[in-house]
């Protein structure tokens, strides 16, 4: 009897233990782990390294292109200044020429001694009334002659000033043109480097297994995320609406994106224009600490050096330790761990 009770107790204990183990197993959630550059097959590790290299090259191209655009804008502005200054100079020269004849006449009259003065007017007058008339006429002539000389001086000074302005503007235009030419070559060189990096990356992608390729594509997150009221949430919802979009180098939407293109496009939907590359976006808004992140903040990643000049990736924080980003070729715009590649450098709050 005692033996049967002992067996029943043992069976009950074993059953209870099994239920407890099962309960613990069910309670453990399936947590999506951030990508570990050191994990996976050799092909996957190569893909991840080449992806980072290509992202850096892409960022170099975007930065160089933005600088080229600025220099071209400076060149256009300088050309407009040259045209305006030359127009002012031409008008001033025309005024100067028009007045030159009258100035010459006055100079000739003074040389011949034909200009009257008050004494000659008195001596030549038949009566006091005639003297007053002659004196008034002299005053008018003197005032008129003075205005002619003043106008001529102003026209000459204006022409000289306009000529100087035009020459300075032409110098700036030439400097801007030279800088733009150098930058254009720099952009072309960086683009060639990017094309090579992307080519290597695509080769590495082709070496991945079917399972690895499928893992890069999804599944796409379908959760709901809310930011603070206003532009930050508008930008966040815009970015979330692009989940599942393909990654394309240098693309700013609306159908395909690279990392900074997604954040640029999202904030543009909120009426806010930010730069089109991640290094320049780092200089927008205000810095926020990691423990103060809120949805809509931009989070940045570098090469591990801690240098903003080495930033090569940006995402948008959605809350709960996650971000939405356009990671690299072969992967889709999606919500994923905010740890990224582990080289987090900081965050910026664009509004608020």
Automatic annotation (TrEMBL):
Pfam families the UniProt entry points to: NLPC_P60 (PF00877)
Residue span, NlpC/P60 domain: 229-351
Protein keywords: Coiled coil, Hydrolase, Protease, Signal, Thiol protease
Cited InterPro entries: NLP_P60_dom (IPR000064), Papain-like_cys_pep_sf (IPR038765), Peptidase_C40 (IPR051202)
A GO biological-process term: proteolysis
Any coiled-coil regions, as ranges: 47-88, 159-214
Molecular function per GO: cysteine-type peptidase activity
Signal peptide: 1-32
Family: Belongs to the peptidase C40 family.
Protein name: NlpC/P60 family protein
Species: Saccharopolyspora shandongensis
């Amino acid at each position: 009897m005692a033996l049967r009770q002992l067996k029943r107790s043992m069976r009950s204990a074993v059953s209870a233990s099994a239920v407890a183990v099962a309960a613990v197993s069910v309670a453990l959630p399936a947590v999506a782990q951030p990508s570990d550059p050191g994990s996976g097959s050799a092909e996957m590790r190569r893909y991840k390294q080449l992806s980072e290299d290509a992202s850096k090259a892409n960022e170099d191209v975007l930065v160089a292109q933005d600088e080229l655009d600025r220099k071209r804008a400076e060149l256009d502005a300088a050309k407009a200044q040259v045209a305006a200054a030359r127009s002012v100079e031409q008008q001033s020269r025309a005024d100067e020429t028009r007045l030159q004849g009258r100035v010459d006449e006055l100079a000739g009259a003074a040389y011949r001694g034909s200009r009257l003065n008050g004494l000659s007017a008195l001596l030549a007058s038949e009566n006091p009334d005639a003297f007053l008339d002659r004196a008034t006429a002299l005053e008018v002539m003197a005032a008129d002659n003075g205005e002619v000389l003043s106008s001529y001086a102003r026209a000459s000074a204006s022409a000289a000033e306009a000529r100087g302005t035009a020459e300075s503007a032409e110098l700036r235009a030439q400097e801007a043109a030279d800088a733009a030419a150098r930058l254009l070559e720099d952009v072309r060189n960086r683009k060639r480097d990017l094309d090579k990096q992307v080519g290597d990356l695509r080769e590495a992608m082709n070496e991945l297994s079917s399972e690895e390729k499928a893992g890069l594509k999804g599944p796409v997150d379908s959760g709901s995320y809310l930011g603070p009221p206003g532009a930050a949430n508008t930008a966040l919802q815009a970015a979330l609406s692009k989940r599942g979009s393909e990654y394309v180098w240098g693309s700013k939407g609306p159908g395909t994106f690279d990392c900074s293109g997604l954040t640029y496009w999202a904030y543009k939907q909120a009426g806010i224009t930010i730069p089109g590359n991640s290094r320049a976006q780092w200089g927008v808004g205000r810095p926020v600490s990691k423990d103060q992140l809120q949805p809509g903040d931009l989070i940045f990643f570098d090469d591990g050096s801690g240098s903003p000049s080495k930033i090569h990736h940006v995402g948008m924080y959605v809350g709960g330790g996650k971000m939405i980003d356009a990671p690299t070729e072969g992967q889709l715009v999606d919500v994923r761990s905010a740890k990224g590649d582990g080289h987090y450098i900081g965050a910026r709050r664009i509004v608020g």
